[in-house]
Design a protein that fits this description.
The chain is mainly α and 193 residues long. The protein is built from 10 helices and 2 strands; from the N terminus they run E-H-H-H-H-H-H-H-H-E-H-H. It has a two-stranded parallel sheet.
Length: 193
């Protein structure tokens, strides 16, 4: 069931105005400035929830190369989730942790700063977070929200492109198999004659 959430424009404006503290380098393996797990814990507290240390472990990176962009995106999502309109929804600790970790994993293929700097990426992030929380933007039906998310989603475009490539590989394999089969039948025909 989809619940009507806050106005999309206010969320997009919030992302455009993300403070530098939320776009600074995440602390990973002793380097960086922002302790992402602490920010996540503060966000949970802001929403009236608490998390055991084990629930915060995914927000402590081990490798700068593997975790930097994902954790930078978690910081931006935490800023978005601190919005009054999203706090009013009272999503609860499991939904917040899922939104933080799941959306960051899903969208980490794009550099995190683009979700602040680029208008289309801001919309994608706001819509993806709302969808993960089981919401749709104020003034839209759930169907309209899903259609618009599919239209702006880089992840959806990648999924469609991958599916298209896989279909092309399957079609190529079938064509090659048909050519081999025809060649074998032709060779058998010449052998019998």
């Amino acid at each position: 069931m989809s619940v009507e959430g806050p106005d999309l424009e206010s969320l997009v404006r919030r992302l455009a105005g993300t403070p530098s503290e939320f776009t600074d380098e995440p602390r990973i393996a002793g380097s960086g400035r922002v302790a992402v797990a602490a920010v996540v814990n503060d966000l949970l507290y802001l929403h009236g929830a608490r998390a055991p240390h084990a629930a915060l472990a995914p927000f402590e990176g081990g490798s700068v190369r593997a975790d930097r962009n994902r954790l930078a995106l978690v910081l931006i999502i935490a800023w978005l989730l601190a919005d009054d309109g999203l706090r009013a929804l009272d999503p609860g600790q499991p939904a917040l942790l899922d939104a933080l970790a799941g959306v960051a994993r899903e969208l980490a293929a794009v550099p995190a700063h683009r979700y602040v700097d680029d208008a289309e990426r801001r919309e994608e992030l706001a819509r993806t977070v709302l969808a993960r929380l089981g919401c749709h933007p104020y003034g839209e039906t759930p169907e309209q929200a899903a259609d618009r998310l599919a239209a702006v989603s880089a992840a959806e475009r990648r999924r469609l492109l991958d599916a298209s490539r896989a279909a092309e590989r399957r079609a190529r394999a079938i064509r090659e198999a048909l050519v081999r089969k025809a060649a074998e039948e032709s060779a058998d025909k010449w052998t019998r004659e």
